UniProtKB/TrEMBL annotation:
Pfam families: PEP-utilisers_N (PF05524), PEP-utilizers (PF00391), PEP-utilizers_C (PF02896), PTS-HPr (PF00381), PTS_EIIA_2 (PF00359). Residues 2-142 form the PTS EIIA type-2 domain. It is found in: Cytoplasm. It catalyses: L-histidyl-[protein] + phosphoenolpyruvate = N(pros)-phospho-L-histidyl-[protein] + pyruvate. This is phosphoenolpyruvate--protein phosphotransferase. Its main location: cytoplasm. Residues 159-246 form the HPr domain.
Length: 823
C-alpha cells in the first residue's frame, strides 16, 4: 500500500470553498511529486461528475480517468480544514483527502478511511488535531476504535447469490461503487456484497468501500426479496461491463481550440459542461417566484384544479418533447419523457391531495410537496440522483404556472447576444435557449451530467456549471470570455485577449462550418454511390430549415403537432394548408408525410382514449386510425390535395399485419378518389418485428420501406427506450436490430423498392456507415445532423461500408459493434 508521511499533510488550513480546497490539496500532491499541475484541473472537473463527499466531514477528490497520464506515481495528500468547508448543500468537510491513483495501491488507505467514518470520536479528533501523526496513524489503520466488520452475513438467510469479478485497474473505488449502488437502489431486494470474510450493504457507498476490493478480485453478491434474482442479474451485467467507467470517461466531448488568456482581471473556475468559446457581455437570469394563495375554501374544487394543471403540464411536456426531438434528436428529447413520469408519481399526488384536504390551495400544496422532495434529492450523495432534483423542480414549476392562473415565469429572451449567468437552468429553460442570442451560459450549480448540460451540448452552446455562488454577483454587461473546454469564466479580459479568443472561435467555427459549407453537395461515397440524406421534421416552419441545412427532402414529417394541445381535431382544410405550405417550402424536393401516430400514451382530450397499461403495445398509430376512419380519411384527403403542389409520399406508422396495410390502402384510395388526386407512392414504417420478419410479403404491397430504428429497437430488445435504467441498453446498433434491417433491405431489393431509415441511428456516423453498407438508400435525421452525415458519407467508400456492416452483423452485442472502425 501507499505509505503515508507527515509531509503529505497540511494542518490548520482555511478554504473559501470546495474548488479552493481541491486546489490546495492538489498543490500538496504536486509538491510531493505525485502529479503534474494539470491534474488539479482534472480533480475539479471530476467533482462535477461524481460527488466525492464520503460523509462525517471527509471528502476524497480525485481526477478523471482520461487524465491518468498526469499522475507521476500513486499518492495521497490530506488537507485539514478545522473550520470546515462546504462541499455540497448540507455537507461540511474537515478532512480533504486528495488521491492520485496510478494503480490500486491506495485501496487500503481508502478502506481504512471508511472505517474512520464509523467512529465519530476519531473523526472529531482528526478534524482538530495539531499532530499530523494522528492522521498518518488513522490512514494506516491504527486510529479507530471501531473494529473491522467480521463475517456478519448469514448467507443461509439469502435467496440467491452470484460471483462477480471487479474489472479495471483500480478496483471498487468511489466511482464504480457509486454506479453499483445506483443500480442496487432500483430494486426492493436486500443486497449485500461479501469479500475476504467481510460484507457490505450493496446500497451503501461507504459500506462497499470498506471492503477494499482491488481490481481483478472476485466478490459474492447476495440478495433476498421478491426481485432478488432480477437484482443480481442487473448487477452482474453492470459489473461485467465495467460499472460505467468507460461510458463516463466520454461524458463531456472536447473540441480543442488552443486559446489561453494572457491578461484578465478575474478568473471564475467551474466545470466544463459543453465545449467551445464565447465572448460577450454578462446577463444575469433569475426565476421569478410564482405566487399562489395558501388557503382554499373548497377542497374538491382544488383537487379538480390540480388534476387539470397536471393534465396541461403533460400536454406541454409532450409538445416540448416533439420540438426538442426535431431540433436535436431523441436522446435530448427523452429527458422530457422522463419528466412526464414525475407527474405520474402516486406518492407525490397522494401527499399533495392530503394537504389540499387539510384546507390548503392546490398551488400551495403542490409547491410544499415539490420543495420538500427537491430538498431531499439535492442532499443525496449520488451526483446523478442529486441532479434529478433540478428535473423535479422544473416539473414542479410547470404545474405551478397553471395553478397560479398566470404565466409570469417566461424563459429569458435577450435582445442582443449575451453570456447567460444563472443559479441553475432547468432542462426546459435550456431547451428553449436561442443559440443565436445565448453565446454561452454559466451556472453556479449543476453538473456536466445534468440534463441541462446534455441539451447545451446538443445545441452547441458552450457552457460551464458548478462555478459557485460568487458568479451570481457579477454585474450585468461585464465583458467576459467563457471557455467551455477548461470550465473557466474570464472576467474583464484585455482587448488582446478578446481579439485572440474571437480569432480562436472563428477557427473553431470554421472547422464546424466546413461541413456546413458543403451541405448542398450530394452524399456520394468515394466510389460513386449516392445516398439520399433527408430531414425529420415535426412542424410546418421546419421544412425550410431542412432545405437550408442541406436536406434533399423530408424523409419523415410527423403530423402529430396538428392534433395535440387542442380541444377539437384539425379539419381537412387546416391540414391541407399546413401540408401545402411544407410542400411549397421544399420547392420540388420530396416529402414523406407520416399519417397520425398517437395512442394511449398521449393526452388528446377529443379522442377520449382510455389509459392503457402498456400503450406502446396498444391502440396507436395505424390501429387508432383504422378505428377512427373519419379522422383518418380527413387527413388522407388533405394529404392528397396537397400532393397537387409537389412530390408527396404517404407513410403509414406502426403497421404490424398485412390486413392493417390492406385496410389503410383501401381508405387511402377512397380519399384519393374523393378529391380527384393522382396516385402517390405509399410506404410503411418498419417498426414492428413482424414486418421485418415478413418483409418479403410486405414489399410486394408498398412502394418503399422506412425503418424507424428507435421503435424497432424498443420492440426487438423488449426495452423501453426512455426507461431510466434500460434506455442505455436499447441501442439500435445491437446486432439483433441490424440483422432485422438487413432482412428488410434484402426483401426490398428483391421487390425493386427502396429502403430508408428515419430513426436516430441514421444521424450517427457509425450507424450511417453501417446502414449504407447494408444497402439502405436514404437516411433521414434531425436537421442539425444533415451536413455532418453528408460530409462523412463523402469520406468513405461503399467497399468500406459493406465490410464494416458485415463485421457488425457478426458481433455478439452492441458494445462490440461500437468498437468497430472502418477497414
Amino acid at each position: 500500500m501507499v505509505q503515508m508521511s507527515e509531509g503529505n499533510i497540511v494542518l490548520g488550513a482555511q478554504a473559501s470553498g470546495k474548488v479552493d480546497a481541491i486546489e490546495q490539496v492538489g498543490d500538496i500532491l504536486v509538491s510531493q511529486g505525485f502529479i503534474e499541475p494539470g491534474y488539479i484541473d482534472s480533480m475539479k472537473r471530476r467533482e462535477a461528475v461524481a460527488n466525492t463527499f464520503l460523509g462525517n466531514g471527509i471528502a476524497i477528490p480525485h481526477g478523471l480517468p482520461e487524465n491518468r497520464e498526469l499522475i507521476r506515481k500513486t499518492g495521497v495528500a490530506v488537507l485539514q480544514v478545522p473550520g470546515g468547508v462546504t462541499w455540497n448543500t448540507g455537507e461540511v468537510v474537515h478532512l480533504v483527502v486528495g488521491i492520485a491513483a496510478k494503480s490500486d495501491e491506495h485501496i487500503e488507505i481508502l478502506t481504512n478511511l471508511t472505517h474512520v467514518l464509523d467512529d465519530a470520536e476519531v473523526t472529531e479528533m482528526l478534524a482538530a488535531t495539531k499532530d499530523p501523526a494522528d492522521i498518518v496513524r488513522a490512514l494506516s489503520g491504527g486510529a479507530t476504535t471501531v473494529s473491522r466488520p467480521g463475517p456478519q452475513l448469514d448467507t443461509l438467510d439469502f435467496d440467491h447469490a452470484v460471483d462477480v469479478t471487479i474489472m479495471g485497474d483500480h478496483g471498487l473505488h468511489a466511482r464504480p461503487a457509486t454506479y453499483f449502488v445506483d443500480i442496487a437502489k432500483t430494486f426492493d431486494a436486500e443486497i449485500y456484497a461479501e469479500y475476504d470474510g467481510r460484507s457490505g450493504n450493496g446500497k451503501s457507498l461507504a459500506s462497499l468501500l470498506k471492503l477494499g476490493v482491488s481490481g481483478g478480485k472476485t466478490i459474492r453478491l447476495h440478495a433476498r426479496g421478491a426481485d432478488a434474482k432480477a437484482a443480481l442479474a442487473a448487477l452482474k451485467e453492470a459489473v461485467d461491463h465495467g460499472l460505467g467507467e468507460q461510458e463516463e470517461e466520454k461524458a463531456v466531448p472536447q473540441v480543442e481550440h488552443g486559446w489561453t488568456p494572457e491578461d484578465v482581471k478575474r478568473v471564475v473556475p467551474g466545470c466544463m459542461a459543453s465545449p467551445g468559446l464565447a465572448c460577450g457581455p454578462i446577463r444575469q437570469y433569475t426565476h421569478r417566484r410564482i405566487v399562489v394563495e395558501a388557503i382554499a375554501k373548497d377542497p374538491q374544487h382544488e383537487l379538480i384544479e390540480l388534476k387539470q394543471a397536471i393534465s396541461a403540464a403533460h400536454s406541454n411536456l409532450h409538445n416540448l418533447y416533439v420540438e426538442v426531438r426535431a431540433r436535436t434528436g431523441e436522446p435530448s428529447a427523452a429527458i422530457f419523457k422522463a419528466h412526464e413520469a414525475f407527474l405520474e408519481d402516486p406518492e407525490l399526488l397522494a401527499d399533495t391531495e392530503a394537504l389540499i384536504l387539510e384546507g390548503k390551495s392546490a398551488g400551495y400544496a403542490w409547491r410544499q410537496i415539490i420543495d420538500e422532495r427537491v430538498r431531499h434529492m439535492e442532499q443525496h450523495k449520488d451526483e446523478v440522483l442529486a441532479a434529478r432534483a433540478m428535473d423535479l423542480r422544473d416539473v414542479g414549476r410547470r404545474v405551478l404556472r397553471h395553478l397560479a392562473g398566470v404565466v409570469q415565469d417566461e424563459p429569458f429572451i435577450p435582445t442582443e447576444p449575451v453570456i447567460l449567468i444563472a443559479e441553475d437552468l432547468t432542462p426546459s429553460d435550456t431547451a428553449q435557449l436561442d443559440p443565436g442570442l445565448i453565446l454561452g451560459f454559466c451556472t453556479s450549480g449543476g453538473g456536466p451530467t445534468s440534463h441541462s448540460a446534455i441539451i447545451a451540448r446538443s445545441l452547441g452552446i458552450p457552457a460551464i456549471v458548478a462555478a459557485g455562488p460568487t458568479v451570481l454577483e457579477i454585474q450585468d454587461d461585464t465583458q467576459a470570455i467563457l471557455d467551455g473546454n477548461t470550465g473557466n469564466l474570464y472576467l474583464e479580459p484585455s482587448p488582446k485577449d478578446v481579439q485572440t479568443a474571437e480569432a480562436a472561435k472563428r477557427q473553431l467555427d470554421a472547422l464546424r462550418n466546413k461541413e456546413y459549407r458543403s451541405r448542398f453537395e450530394p452524399a456520394l461515397t468515394l466510389d460513386g454511390t449516392r445516398i439520399e440524406v433527408a430531414a425529420n421534421i415535426g412542424k410546418t416552419n421546419e421544412a425550410e430549415k431542412a432545405v437550408n441545412a442541406g436536406g434533399e427532402g423530408v424523409g419523415l414529417m410527423r403530423t402529430e403537432f396538428l392534433f395535440l394541445e387542442r380541444e377539437t381535431p384539425p379539419d381537412e382544410e387546416e391540414q391541407f394548408q399546413s401540408y401545402k405550405a411544407m410542400v411549397e417550402a421544399l420547392n420540388g424536393l420530396p416529402i414523406i408525410i407520416r399519417t397520425l401516430d398517437i395512442g394511449g400514451d398521449k393526452a388528446v382530450s377529443y379522442l377520449d382514449l382510455p389509459a392503457e397499461d402498456n400503450p406502446f403495445l396498444g391502440v396507436r398509430g395505424i390501429r387508432l386510425c383504422l378505428n377512427r376512419p373519419e379522422l383518418f380519411l380527413s387527413q388522407l384527403r388533405a394529404i392528397y390535395r396537397a400532393s397537387e403542389f409537389g412530390p408527396i409520399r404517404i407513410m403509414f406508422p406502426m403497421v404490424a399485419t398485412m390486413s392493417e396495410l390492406a385496410a389503410a390502402k383501401r381508405l387511402a384510395e377512397k380519399a384519393r378518389i374523393e378529391v380527384g388526386a393522382s396516385p402517390v407512392e405509399i410506404g410503411i414504417m418498419v417498426e414492428v418485428p413482424s414486418v421485418a420478419v415478413m418483409a418479403r410479403e410486405f414489399a410486394r404491397e408498398v412502394d418503399f420501406f422506412s425503418v424507424g430504428t428507435n421503435d424497432l429497437t424498443q420492440y426487438v430488445m423488449a426495452m423501453d427506450r426512455v426507461h431510466p435504467t434500460l434506455a442505455a441498453h436499447a441501442d439500435s446498433l445491437h446486432p439483433a436490430v441490424l440483422r432485422m434491417i438487413e432482412q428488410v433491405v434484402k426483401a426490398a431489393d428483391e421487390a425493386g423498392i427502396w429502403t430508408g431509415v428515419c430513426g436516430g441511428l441514421a444521424g450517427e456516423p457509425l450507424g450511417a456507415a453501417i446502414l449504407v453498407g447494408l444497402g439502405v438508400k436514404e437516411l433521414s435525421m434531425v436537421v442539425p445532423s444533415i451536413a455532418a452525415i453528408k460530409s462523412y458519407i463523402r469520406s468513405i467508400s461503399m467497399t468500406q461500408a459493406r465490410q464494416l456492416a458485415q463485421k457488425a452483423l457478426n458481433c455478439i452485442d452492441n458494445n462490440q459493434v461500437r468498437t468497430l472502425t472502418l477497414p
